[in-house]
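Marked as duplicate of an earlier ticket. Keeping the data here for the record.
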Amino acid sequence: MKILDVGCGINKYPGAIGLDRNPRSGADVLCDLDRFPYPFADGAFDQVRAVHFIEHASDVIRSMEEFHRLVRPGGRIFIVTPHYTDFSSFCDPTHRWHLNSFSFRYFGEDHAGFGYYSPVRLREISVRVKLLAFWRALGFEFLVNRWRGFRRFWEYYLCFVVRGKVMEFEFERMEWPVG
């Protein structure tokens, strides 16, 4: 399995090709991650991982389009990012974006009516929200991850009290729409 770890930093995913801009990272390939395209062929990877990268990107939509280009049809894109209610989302001055568990809906089949932002389509395999330990112990994390409707209710009404920590997304590349 060929894996690209975008923004790998010093913790490159085992067996992956690491891509980063920082020469002090564990990257195999150095490049400016805000300039596209990255130096790889279309569909070159089975999986693209972006663990704590997307919140640093200059353009989330363009980054997602590049991940879509790099992963083979049916390949997977794995993203980890802080939830916008977590302290870590705002304490790092290099974070440009503060996201929630529905931030990538524009790339889905039901693109929330905003499909014109990008032609890229991704099938959501999973969304996992991790909550602060106190709320996890009370069972809120289970509820948020068990039912999409409860997750929406939590995002709308509860997340400023029952705060999120980290979100993990997994998507499957779908083909560009015809026409």
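See parent ticket for discussion. The chain has one domain: 3-131+166-173.
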